[in-house]
Design goal:
With 77 residues, the protein is α+β, with helices and mostly antiparallel strands. Helix content is 29%, strand content 39%. It has a single domain, classed as SH3 type barrels, CATH 2.30.30.100.
């Protein structure tokens, strides 16, 4: 039996497992601001209590919004 016949399905299974794990870690959310905007985020925003800002990632860059400007943060299902 050729080792390639065993290795390829194993690599494919590992790749699928890794993709499923990454997808499961993502928590899409939406930030609702006091001025009526709705900001979609790919992951759950982080609330930094020390600085008073809500941090999220947009187009690969970290964005911060003042926590007092945020009305609600909801998880999108």
């Amino acid at each position: 039996m050729n080792n390639t016949n065993i290795i390829r399905p194993t690599i494919a299974a590992l790749a699928l497992t890794a993709l499923a794990t990454m997808a499961a870690c993502s928590t899409p959310s939406q930030i609702h601001t006091r001025d009526g905007r709705a900001i979609p985020t790919a992951d759950k925003p982080e609330i930094d209590k020390d600085s008073g800002f809500v941090k999220y990632e947009k187009e690969g860059r970290e964005v911060m919004i003042n926590q007092s400007d945020v009305q609600a943060i909801e998880e999108i299902k």
